[in-house]
Amino acid sequence: MSLSKYSEAFKSNLDGPIPVFVGQLDGLLFEFLSSVPKDGYFRALNLLHYGYANFRSAVLLTQGGAVAAVPSVLRNSLEASAYGFLFHHNKDWWDLWQKREQELNAKNKFRNSGLSNAKSALQKEDDTLLNQFNVLYETLISFGAHPNYFGVDEIVSYEPLEGDRVFVSFNQLAGELERERAYLLVGQTGVFFGSILGALWGEDVETSYFLVKLGELAETIETHAFELVENEEST
Fold first, then answer.
1. What is the pLDDT confidence band of residue 44, given thresholds at 50, 70 and 90?
2. pTM of structure
3. With b meaning 16 or more CB within 10 Å and e meaning fewer, what string describes 126-165?
4. How far apart are CA 6 and CA 145, in angstroms?
5. Whose CA is closest to 75, among 164, 234, 186?
6. Dihedral over alpha carbons 23, 28, 30, 31 (to 10 degrees)
7. Rounded average pLDDT over 112-141
């Protein structure tokens, strides 16, 4: 497939319907992220807006069918939200992060210890947050954030021929089933992102409403995941 035909097919896929739960999740994140106070939260906000931008990019990549790139983009969103949480609670790590491109020692320290300290901050807030992060992180790594088997195999199709021969094709743009799987990853990452927002801004009427809606969407995504597994096992 030439690049021009690839582009045409990608744009054609974009015109299709986006799953309802994805649109609802995006709207919820946008509304809450846009309404939070700016004072006192700057260190978190810039990372969170970066993470949200990656989340939306993953939505469009999935809709277009370029699912091979989705786990890598979602990993950016996942890590950005965790770092935003860390920086809000620990200004020293924010300062170190800013210096990492100017000072080799800062770069090495952040590279070696930044993520583990972000995970410690999540655990200090809530063990559930850390567990969500760890499960998602490993899932994204397995399914394409690194070139591991599951991610690579997702774009390869095998068709047995006569004898021992096999016809192998490489699907640069995914079909409906692969996009459905990718959308589940998008949804699960978005729910984690929303959980970080809720943890950052504490308990008030607006946050409570947000978390209730987020919980409802999380249940919807779990149901979709269960149904997808059931359908695959029955075929």
1. confident
2. 0.89
3. eeebbebbeebbebbbebbbeeeeebeebbeeeeeeeeee
4. 22
5. 186
6. 130
7. 95
